[in-house]
Amino acid sequence: AVVEDMAKNPASSGRIGQQVGDFYGSWMDEAGIEKRGLAPLKPYLARVAAVKDKTALTHLFVDPSYTGPLGFGIIPDPKDPTHYVAIAGQGGLGMPNRDYYLLQGAKYDGYRKAYRDYVIKVQTLAGIPDAAAKADKIIALETAIAKDQWTPERSREMKEIYNPMDRAKMATLAPQFDWNGMLKQAGLNNMPTVVVMQPSAIQAAGKLVDSVPLDTWKDYVAFHFISSHAQFLPKAFDEASFNFYSKTLRDVPTQRDRWKRGVALV
């Protein structure tokens, strides 16, 4: 009732109340979402298409809107919790962790097939040509990323993941990444050091930046942008995402009511 009232009369709710009302109202405007179709995607996919070199690609990796094999964050410093520290960690997989790409057996074969179908579906809905061929390249890239990532249990070992590095050390570890440009892009330009949580995985990801064609990386980034924003796109995207991530991976049989999801987003 609170968010619905704000949506009905946002002008009387103050600036923040108007934002809440507008946000919830736009989420519930399913007809408007369908009418806009793919238009909201275009400027974001155009930015991916405009990438001409690997340096610009690495800048996309750390933009919160996009996905890459590493990302930055901020946490309380484990050695001095009265201060914050910047961290860089592994990421970039479309399935929950490395096991889904590497473990053998019928269960994981089923997950991998369903994921391939999902990657094809999302690209097809977005009007991207050669969806099946691109899906195979995207999944091959993610599998290569997964092979060098740390296991979840190793990534919880504080002594293993606490590796403060300055710019010079990061450049030595993975020179393929434009660390100065990435930190600036992430708003962390003033941080003298960064805690690199999985050094060997970051190093391996840097080698993939070198060895994997730029077009494959761009297809990967474009797919992940669409997938991670599927809930805000027309119903076909939202359903495809639910069917894979909730129904297939988590055995959730039905989608929650839209108004409940909207309140959770607010």
Describe this structure in words.
By secondary structure, the protein is of the alpha+beta class. Helices cover 59% and strands 9% of the residues. The protein has helices spanning 2-8, 14-28, 30-36, 42-49, 54-61, 99-102, 106-125, 131-148, 158-161, 167-173, 179-185, 199-211, 214-228, 235-250, 258-265, and strands at residues 70-77, 80-90, 164-165, 194-196. It has a four-stranded mixed β-sheet with strand order 1-2-4-3. Strand 1 (70-77) and strand 2 (80-90) form a beta hairpin. Helix 4 (42-49) runs antiparallel to helix 13 (214-228) and helix 7 (106-125) crosses helix 8. It is globular. 28% of the residues are buried. The mean pLDDT is 95.
Write the layout of secondary structure elements.
Blueprint: H1 2-8, H2 14-28, H3 30-36, H4 42-49, H5 54-61, E1 70-77, E2 80-90, H6 99-102, H7 106-125, H8 131-148, H9 158-161, E3 164-165, H10 167-173, H11 179-185, E4 194-196, H12 199-211, H13 214-228, H14 235-250, H15 258-265
Parallel strand pairs: 2-4
Antiparallel strand pairs: 1-2, 3-4
Basic shape: globular
The H-and-E topology, N to C, reads as HHHHHEEHHHHEHHEHHHH
Number of helices: 15
In whole angstroms, the N-to-C terminal distance is: 13 Å
Task: Please count the beta strands (DSSP E, at least 2 residues each).
Answer: 4
Strand content: 5-15%
- Percent helix: 55-70%
Structural class: alpha+beta
Uncertain segments of ≥5 residues (pLDDT<50)? none
Largest beta-sheet characterization: 4 strands, mixed
